[in-house]
């Protein structure tokens, strides 16, 4: 036991906190990426409907959006360690649900798996934001989110390749590999949680706070904050919608373009591959100024390039080039927007829980609307045209946000204080 404690102390001293956090995070993210590739294909094949698949996938984010309201209130004193551990434990139910769903072809089982996926995802997202804000220095926020994005993008590239081969070998093998990765994530998470000493307790340091769930009150906070932080919200939802489109129909589109020769993973892997370079550049540069402007311009240009998919889908070489080029440009958007949120959360002080809920709601809203939208649309107009329409919508949103967003986001601190007093 003494040797284990010595090992933990040594590696904790040699590595910065973010690189310790990355170890379990990568295992969890890798398992999640395999599931993200397999789930829409398994559901669409089992139920023979892209529309029904989209509805089932959207349910995970409906639950996630509800969690964005509830978690900051009932778990207000919990640290990132609680959220990380909860994420892994909840995630273990998802591969089992997919296995049972494909065996018995039951919508209810797929729906249960989707709901558990939504809860898991919110736990993990809260763990990330709380870790960065509470354990890291503000000057490192861009670098930290670049490192986290780097780990995510690496899993997004490798996982579809493995997932495609696992599907060929059978759902039994896929389930075993996913659960093995989740157990590895749990094991390393327990070591990291013991090694990193939390600097702050969680959302709030007000010892008189009594946790209670009041969705109407939380909606008032969201309404107040949204009027000020709307540029970050619109960029966050839009880039998440693009990612959701690739995860929802990317694997099926790959089958349509490359056939059943085992290359169906190419669309998703090619989209996320250049993001590694962008994430590394963000982590290296550690941009401290103009994050909002750069993220908006990157979303505008990247979406514009991506909108050419329908025009070039019959030419595989041009299709690959368009996906790679748009991906590289878009790779700057998410980590910079997350860094903007981290800056704002640091400025929020004890009221950060309300903004953190909005932060997480970005992806929840995108993953509610997008799978349903692209699932129905792809049944009507095809996969290539669906990608182009989503990209054109993203281009329009990015242009409007760039034109009308304020130079600096100002937080309504006085209004928040008045709301706190009226709710105390």
3D architecture notes:
- The protein has a single domain (14-423), classed as MFS general substrate transporter like domains (Growth Hormone, Chain: A, Up-down Bundle), CATH 1.20.1250.20.
- The model is unreliable at 1-14 and 204-212 (pLDDT under 50).
- It has helices at 2-14, 17-47, 50-74, 80-91, 93-104, 107-135, 141-169, 171-195, 215-258, 266-285, 291-306, 309-312, 316-330, 333-348, 352-381, 383-404, 413-423.
- Helix 2 (17-47) runs antiparallel to helix 8 (171-195), helix 9 runs parallel beside helix 15 and helix 14 (333-348) runs antiparallel to helix 15 (352-381).
- The protein is built from 17 helices and no strands.
- With 424 residues, the chain is an all-alpha fold.
- The longest helix is centred in the middle third of the chain and has 44 residues, at 215-258.
- It is globular, with a radius of gyration of 21 Å.
**CATH topology type:** Growth Hormone, Chain: A
CATH class: Mainly Alpha
Gyration radius (Cα, Å) is 21 Å
Biggest beta sheet attributes: none
CATH superfamily: MFS general substrate transporter like domains
Mean residue pLDDT: 83
Based on secondary structure, the structural category is mainly alpha
Q: How many beta strands in the DSSP annotation?
A: 0
Give the overall shape, derived from the CA principal axes: globular
Separation of termini? 47 Å
**Could you list the spans in which at least 5 consecutive residues all have pLDDT below 50?**
1-14, 204-212
CATH architecture: Up-down Bundle
Order of helices and strands: HHHHHHHHHHHHHHHHH
